[in-house]
Structure of Sarcalumenin:
Amino acid sequence: TSKPMVLFLGPWSVGKSSMINYLLGLDNTPYQLYTGAEPTTSEFTVIMHGPKLKTIEGIVMAADSTRSFSPLEKFGQNFLEKLIGIEVPHKLLERVTFVDTPGIIENRKQQERGYPFNDVCQWFIDRADLIFVVFDPTKLDVGLELEMLFRQLKGRESQIRIILNKADSLATQELMRVYGALFWSLAPLINVTEPPRVYVSSFWPHDYQPETHRDLFLKEEISLLEDLNQVIENRMENKIAFIRQHAIRVRIHALLVDRYLQTYKDKMTFFSDGELVFRDIVEDPDRFYIFKSILAKTNVSKFDLPNREAYKDFFGINPITSFKLLSQQCSYMGGCFLEKIEKAITRELPDLLGSIGLGKKP
């Protein structure tokens, strides 16, 4: 039932907060987001609909189960102090929620923020229907922090839109050079055949600078609003597609844990030390063809396989002996878990998507 979420990401002082102020007409109101040339937004700011202008503390947002932000409590009190909600009685916010994020500062480490910045970003990325990555013509250098961010966006390419903001601060020839340089910087980070849509304009209420491409900038703004409207219209399809994507991840995870467990059982003898046997397997899964066997026996893409290192941590918390083989989790009445998830992925969720496409109410 939650509204589609639009996430604003990018380096500091590229105009993310100004863009939100502009889209919602918050300029010169008591609730405009603070902007400036130096890094200003240090909080994750959620802008949502409400009957009157109101600010909500992060601790209150996380405690309110109706707002769907309660899972953010897991990032700790330090983070909740950096989370803020703003309710605005605006027509657009009846249909969408905006999230403004702290700008990426290349030389700042996660530890300095006092909370796991990348993990929090990932939480919002996983739930976003549209992700605006905003750039300023003077800040096109891609450092480690930005590289890390694009790694986190892997698999969400269809939801990414690149914004080249403050475009009227450049002459035409210079703007073309910057546009090319932006693509050159991002090409190694967005590894897809079709590049994301790039919007070139100046998203703020001031008039465009004279002798710049006013018509182009205005058309780009209108295109962006049409794009945003399309995402709002398609929110049900996006949610079902997200659920299916999540189901595929769960299926892969189940198959991998099953494979680790089967390998462990095969290698164990009466005289074996279980801990040493499993440490061998988890340290070098390729020697036991754990991941390759999943690719050979299923239609899983190698690009969808999770990181091998993640399973060291996973089994550190969840001992291998606490799992049952998938084949042992089938019953005459209930069927098999894996068959149910396969059916959801291949038939039920696509059918649900199809019914929406035909205009039926799911």
Q: What stands out?
A: The chain has a mean pLDDT of 86. The beta strands are 5-9, 44-49, 54-57, 83-88, 97-100, 130-135, 160-164, 197-200, 330-331, 335-336. The longest strand covers residues 44-49.
